[in-house]
Amino acid sequence: MDKTFIMGLAIGMVGGALIVVNCKKARNIIKKSQDEVMEKVNAAMDEKLKAFEDKSSSCGCGTDYNQNISED
Q1: Dihedral angle at the C-alpha atoms of 9, 14, 18, 24, nearest 10 degrees?
Q2: Of 26, 24, 6, 7, which Cα lies nearest the Cα of 16?
């Protein structure tokens, strides 16, 4: 059962790769989707970093560390 599943998965991946290689429209769709995902990930990371910086600056946890870095 596991071998057939893995074999089907591998064949599906190869088939999908062949379709993408031979079809410009499919390549464009994949590229567009990748760009959208990367934008969402970057936005989420920016929000988390900003929240972390706000949290550390409000409690005064990161001020000495940041000053030490800028002095070096």
Answers
A1: 60
A2: 26
